Amino acid sequence: MMARIMTSPPLGTSPSSRFVVALALLGLSLAPAPSWAQDVNFSGSWVPIFHEDGPERLPGPELADYAGMPINEAARMRGDSYDADRISIVMEYQCRQHGGDYSMRGLSNLRILREIDPLTQRAVAFHTRMGFHDMERTIYLDGRPHPSPNAAYTWQGFSTGVWNGNMLMITTTHLKPNYLRRNGLPASDQRTFTEYWVRHGEYLTVVTIINDPVFMTERLVRSQSWYLDPGQQIGFNACEYAAEVPAPEGTVPHHLPGENPHLREYAEWYGLPFEATRGGAETMYPEYRLQMTVPTERPEVCTRFCTCMNEGTRCPLEGDPPLDEFGLTT
After folding, report:
1. Alpha-carbon distance 237 to 132, whole Å?
2. The pTM is what?
3. Is residue 85 one of the residues assigned to a domain?
4. Per-residue pLDDT of the chain (330 residues; tens, 9 = 90+)
5. Which of the listed residues 182, 200, 228 is the one where a domain comes to its end?
């Protein structure tokens, strides 16, 4: 087309004008293509930043800490029956991966690779890998549908992504039953998981939304931040099953209803009303603080996890007793 324009200019056009038109068209042909949402590249090695809910995501939540979780009675009963020795004694649990939804919340580093179609040069998938038990996930960007509900369910599920401006929205289904929180709160295989990825230079913000009609009465919305770490090397995580704690074969550590002696420890350690620690949708919202009662007995100083989670140093309050490296009083 350019050749026809150059050799057949409009009647009455001067040679100099024809040269300017041809030069402009040539410039347009060489100009970079318009920026598309798919030009946003999340590829790289990312390290989680634990300024958000550090104690929950690193050492793990306290037993019976359900605060801020929109759980129902079935989930609460499962949490109350949980015994932490279950992971050591039930060997099938020892090398179990995080679910695809919890993995974005946990403490593993993250590597993201972008797959490009060689013909169209468009992104068709992101592939993620995390170091905990070699968790790998594919996020398809080619418009394929989710499989039948009768298809196989996996730890990482089936994920598809669509672009909304420079934000990637990811929907994940076909997740195996797992945990909502690492203190026994369950997650069913009926849950769906939605993520929103936004990149700001060397920072990645991930907002996650979990909808579980079996164990929750409302959706659970949380956010996590990641920082780009180009020098990071993610290897493999070899996990072997072993009898870690002596117990008769077939033992599943648990507590029967009304027999768990640890349910009030979290409330007592942090000076919280017991009812607030039991969770429920109402505990997610700031207005809930207006109806919280103040316990008659409260600790005068912080005695547990009184550390700066990012720096790994102690952050005692004025008047606190000395703390060891675990944030416990010495």
Report:
1. 6
2. 0.80
3. yes
4. 444 433 444 444 455 555 444 444 444 444 444 344 567 899 999 999 988 888 888 888 999 999 999 999 999 999 999 999 998 999 888 888 899 999 988 778 999 999 999 999 999 999 999 978 889 999 999 999 999 999 999 999 999 999 999 999 999 999 999 999 999 999 999 999 999 999 999 999 999 999 999 999 999 999 999 999 998 888 777 788 888 889 998 999 999 999 999 999 999 988 999 999 999 999 999 999 998 988 888 887 777 776 655 455 555 555 556 655 555 555
5. 228
Please, which contacts does 246-254 make with residues 24 or more away whose CB atoms are closer than 8 Å? 247/85, 247/89, 251/89, 251/90, 252/86, 252/89, 252/90, 253/83, 253/84, 253/85, 253/86, 253/89, 253/90, 254/81, 254/82, 254/83, 254/86
Q: Domain residues for 193? A: 44-228
Which string of DSSP letters, residue by residue, matches 225-260? EEEE-TT-------------S---TT---B--TT--
Strand partners, 313: 308
Whether residue 269 sits in one domain with residue 214:
no
Comparing C-alpha atoms, which of 78, 86, 103 is closest to residue 186?
78
Are residues 50 and 11 located together in one domain of the fold? no
Pick from 204, 228, 252: which residue ends a domain? 228
**Same structural domain, 19 and 65:** no
Return the amino acid letter for 200: H
* The total number of structural domains that make up the chain: 3
Q: Do 64 and 145 reside in the same domain of the chain? A: yes
Q: Amino acid identity of 238?
A: A
Structure tokens belonging to residue 115: 């797959």
10 and 56 part of one domain: no
Sign of CA dihedral 204, 207, 210, 211: negative
142 and 272 share one domain: no
Q: Do residues 70 and 217 make contact, with C-beta atoms less than 8 angstroms apart?
A: yes
CA distance 63 to 80: 8
The answer to whether 316 and 325 have CB atoms below 8 angstroms apart is no
Domain assignment present for 145: yes
